[in-house]
Records
---
Amino acid sequence: MPVDSWEWIPGKSVGPFQFGAKARAVIARFALRKLEPACPDADWDTYEIPGRESCLSTEDDRISSINCWDHLYYKDSDILTLSRDEARALLGPEEESEPLGETSLMAVYYHSLGLTLWIEDGWIKSATCEESSDTDLIFRILPPNLWVKAMHSEKKRAFRNN
């Protein structure tokens, strides 16, 4: 099944993929292809998302994160086309950042949003999205028209996990 939407709801989902959802059904529904482990001791599995330059990671049969290299939409902006300064204007100041070795690469963290931006020469090159437990913050940054969608998602998750 093709993935049409690639909208990010901070800490909750990217497109149709909800963090914490059971992975087995999602893998089958979207015909995800398992990739070779990044390291031999990995305690997670990674799957290629067809039609996207992105991959989904699972731990304990739950979706744990999504790595995006092609697109990541939020508030009518593709985050992966922004500079670091433009990302700050959209998301607010980052909570933490660190250079990656002796290069122009940098990791910028928005822990409360479940977001890590991977930046090179001041431009966002990719993003890692994962679950965030700071729901109150999410409702402060989400536009009101997405609150219902986020609340519905949260209710479905609570039902599914009980």
---
Amino acid sequence: MDIRPAIEADIQAICDLVNHYADQNLMLHRTPEQVRRALGDFRVAEADGRVIGCGYIAYLGPDLVELRSLAVAPDWQGRGVGARIVEALVSLARERGLRQICALTLVPHFFERLGFRIVNRWEISPKIWSECVYCPKFHACDEVAVLKDLA
């Protein structure tokens, strides 16, 4: 398994993977155009020529990014793929000089194992909520905010 920057040829595979979970109300849907616009911020896990995981960072401010669309193929879960993608995105954020990375998650313990801490969701930049209005659970959010300092 390799972790690498996403390329144009990965767009449909990323959408298929993310939307598999979005159809279960576990994350937000992504269109090919949305993925294309953020392509340089995506990292994918690839095994045997197949995209088996993905995630990207979205800028919320000059020092803060949000980790979004973290997804791993069902047949690859539990093998460290998600952790490797998170580590690659944390490295990308550090390389770009960012100070913090956050996420909204249904699995906070996964992120805690990777050095994130649970925070009050209202402590994060209000820009994080710009995506939330598209969530079917917007008025009854069950996600937990996590944050990692990169300095």
---
Amino acid sequence: MSNTTSRSAPVSQKERVTSLDLIRGIAILGILPMNALTWGFSDFAGYSNVRAVGTEQPFDWVIGIASKLFIEQKMMALFSLLFGVGVVIFWERAGSKTAHPNWLSLWRFALLFVIGSIHAAIWYGDVLTAYAISAPIVLLVHQRSPKILMAVGVGLVVLGSLSAALVQIGVNNGSFPIGEYWVPGGTPLLESDLLAWFYADAILRSLGLMLIGVSFYRLGIVQSTRPREFYKKMALWGLGVGLLLTCIGVAIHVVDRWSERTALTGHIPLGLGTIPMALGYLGVIVLWKNDASKLQQRLQAAGRMAMTNYLSQTVLGISTLTVLAQKVELTRTMIFAWILLVWALQLWWSPWWLQRFRFGPAEWLWRCGTYRSRQPFRRSTN
């Protein structure tokens, strides 16, 4: 730990875990509203372009704009921060059990890539493969100073966001048809010239945010060890700056009537706003944290089963929304109602499952594969 951390109030390992689980639980539920759009609408344009589809009534617009302002990429950014933290925590714990924590970590990332590849075969929006690709780099540099990790992390996110300007030039001069990324019925994203940029941006953003997460872990920020005043300032400045940038991005789209001429131009401030927004949310969550809260206990359970909940969201989305969308034209309000049902379901089953089992099913399988042996699963009934 840095000198900054050593001056902070000490916390127990249990407090640190529940703090991280709470943040992770909120993040894993928070990514659902945007992912659900890709299952409920046949074109990716339903995700990126609020005007494109699903906005039949005023409340549809409220949901669409609110999602852009408060959720799109923000919750994924928070989840990515926590994944970077998880890489380091696993390495630290593995170091106390084996002489080769690096090799064990790399093997674990390889298994994650396999899981992500299977998931990607079902749904193109998978993020686990990007995490698996980025994680070895995090492992390589995680012992660098927090300032260096922060600078590199921010630089990667900024680079990914600014790259949209070059792609926008290509779209406007006809070099890169924007396809269904923005226009319903256009060239499918998986067949589009934009696909390489789409995935490159995802990896740059994931890696950058993971490095920022490691920096914050090294500084003791994500473990709730700083004074409350620190988190108040982080929440205030993070949300203030983040919302300003996000509002600029949304305003670009609204003023130009969601034209493809500025589709990726608006992406730039939206992308830049993800870092301060994620940090603002982090500050709010730490200030809100109360282990006696029944709701927070459920959110912590959802965080402990993050991979299971993430994968099950896809299964539920494809088996219900995608099937339903083939029969009726869904609106954003309908999809939001479905999201509320899934949230309720996952907040119910996560604590129910963990009362009976030590890990979520996906987490347990990953753990068994990591250690190449069957791990304890069911809790003792004694």
---
Amino acid sequence: MRALLWVLLLGSPALAQLCDQPFAPARPGWEWQYRVTGERPGAYSIHKTSITESSFVQVRQSASGKEETTYRCTPEGIAPVDFGTQGGGRVEAGAQPVSYDLKVVKVTGVAVPDYDRWAVGGSWKLVLEVQGSGQQGPLRFNISGTLETTYRVVAQETVTTPAGRFVAYRLQTTFATRLRAQAGPLSLPFNFESQGTSWYAENVGLVKSIQKTREGENITELVALRKGG
């Protein structure tokens, strides 16, 4: 019994730290505040709650409302396991907008890897296999496919945001959408890619990102990190 207790005591800190990664801290009371400039300007904050040894909930608060996403923590890193309140949406497509509702059915890889992977030249990938439904006017259809994000660490450099100066790793990201809509005998592919750059600082997390899409460019910057609790 004493030996078992000793093993549990030794193991507990390591397990607790799975969700509290240096480049994606999960601390009660911490709040990250960001501003967005560019094609879709705005502001939002992020905090993490329901933190356990193997998961946490990330809460994103903006003027449009609150979005919650659950993340899984493993020795390999951190990955989302659902869209939370972000799975549904609406896309303008000509005269009739498209509404959709997607669910994650399988997760491969991680969004934030363990500490040892953070080095110039390092890379990793996150693949979300999704299924759901959509509607455009009277037409209803099923949706299936993958959302794949590839991350590559290209440099370590100093970056400045309204929150201060940070020594950060610069990541190049590629986001690839490979979806197919099926309505009876009709099958239509929805494939596109977007590129991005992001900077992550140790013991802070994301401090800046630049996302490029067909509509334009959005720049996200850390304004403040509140360490309450």
